[in-house]
Specification:
mainly alpha; two-stranded antiparallel ribbon; two-stranded antiparallel sheet; 4 strands; 12% strand; globular; Tyrosine_recombinase_XerCD; Integrase-like_cat_sf; Tyrosine-type recombinase/integrase
Length: 134
């Protein structure tokens, strides 16, 4: 249905996330291959042997996977937090209002969301030029 349930986000918060059709399709394909229980974590640890474990993937585990992929692809290092910052900034660049972005990010306080805004001066200049005085 295009909705992911986050049961234990940061601060053990529960929330629902709406995902794009392509993401929904990819998750459904993964569940056909990787899910052994309907209630198990979507992303789980992968043992050195390649076997998928029953425990959920940790932030440290995700960071390690990203580091391996970055090295293989020959791209600059980035963290899961960088991806979060990019997600929030891109939504703001596309004109999504900050309260909706706050909700999508799972922030309870809008000031937290503003700290992730990396749009810089270009957006301020563009906004200033759009002001109509008469």
């Amino acid at each position: 249905n295009g909705i992911l349930t986050v049961r234990q986000g940061k601060g053990r918060k529960y929330r629902e996330i709406h995902v794009a059709d392509a993401v929904d399709k990819a998750i459904r394909a993964w569940l056909k291959v990787g899910a052994d229980e309907a209630d198990s974590a979507l992303f789980r640890r992968i043992q050195r042997s390649g076997k998928v474990a029953s425990q959920p993937l940790t932030t440290t585990g995700l960071t390690g996977i990203l580091a391996e992929l970055q090295q293989t692809a020959g791209i600059a290092r980035f963290t899961p937090h960088d991806m979060r910052r990019t997600f929030i900034t891109r939504l703001l660049e596309q004109g999504v209002d900050i309260n909706t972005v706050r909700q999508l990010a799972g922030h309870s306080d809008i000031s937290t969301t503003t700290r992730y805004d990396c749009r810089g001066d270009t957006m301020k200049i563009s906004a200033s030029k759009r002001i109509r005085c008469f």
